[in-house]
Amino acid sequence: MVLLSIQTLPSSCPTLNNYTFNYRSRRQSQSQSQRRCVKIRSNVIRCGIAEPSGEPAPLGQKTKYNDGLFEKAFMTLFARKMENFAAKSASKNGSQKEEKKKGWFEYDYDSFVDVSRKVMQGRSRLQQQQVVREVLMSMLPPGAPAQFRKLFPPTKWAAEFNAAITVPFFFWLVGPSEVVEVEVGGVKQKSGVHIKKCRYLENSGCVGMCVNMCKIPTQDFFTNEFGLPLTMNPNFEDMSCEMVYGQIPPPFEEDPVAKQPCLADICSIANLSSSFCPKLQA
User: Fold this and answer.
1) CATH code reported for the domain at 69-89+102-248
2) What is the mean pLDDT of residues 29-44?
3) 3-state SS track over the chain
4) What is the pLDDT of residues 111-129, one digit of tens each?
């Protein structure tokens, strides 16, 4: 999805605290301070993951994250917006049960994913994508798409700039990523973003949610609303993903994801009798 966040710095990160105290020492030379600044920036990004290695957990294991107030605020904001479209739970007598909304900062990532799953219920692929579009549009100020088009016309610079800011601002949603060089229209440029292990796919375990609630809506939003083409290529074998700014996405019918089967080992609603995920049907 098109989501923005500000990475918070967990106070429990010993590496960062040590460098902070060292940095304040007036006895350090300028070169030493500069080297420490580089290390600080590196560790700031890695402190969002609670894994000892600072990297996503191996395939088959769920990555642990340290989510701060800013991350939970965004989870709450989007979850509440999406709850307006979520399917209601049924009570014992069969009627729809009104669920009490959680308070601010009471939502976590699992709650956010659970709301996404409820939005899928009873909706076709196109209807799911339309819900995400409406949620995204509701969070933008009036005239935002037009302003974006003026600031970021579909140029190499705009594509590379958006790739660069995707890494820190999409961290809470998809996990750690890095800018990579890609080829767009025969031109090599650093407008690609390699997501190491997508947090959304890892937690949902659902091909349909990845495609209908993230990939297609995000592609369409950037390409059609913002005027900056974007193609997303999820890898369902290792849960990585590549975002390519500046590349026009293919029609859904020609996209390899259209025939992607369910992730039988991890999807709670997988349909093993179908050759592709049923949620990808129109």
Assistant:
1) 3.90.1520
2) 35
3) CCCCCCCCCCCCCHHHHHHHHHHHCCCCCHHHHHHHHHHHHHHHHHCCECCCCCCCCCCCCCCCECCCHHHHHHHHHHHHHHHCCCCCEECCCCCEECCCCCCCCCCCHHHHHHHHHHHHCCCCHHHHHHHHHHHHHHCCCCCHHHHHHHHCCCCHHHHHHHHHHHHHHCHHHHCCEEEEEEEECCEEEEEEEEECCCHHHHHHCCHHHHHHHHHHHHHHHHHHHCCCCEEEEEECCCCEEEEEECCCCCCHHHCHHHHCCCCCCCCCCCCCCCCCCHHHCC
4) 999 999 999 999 999 999 9
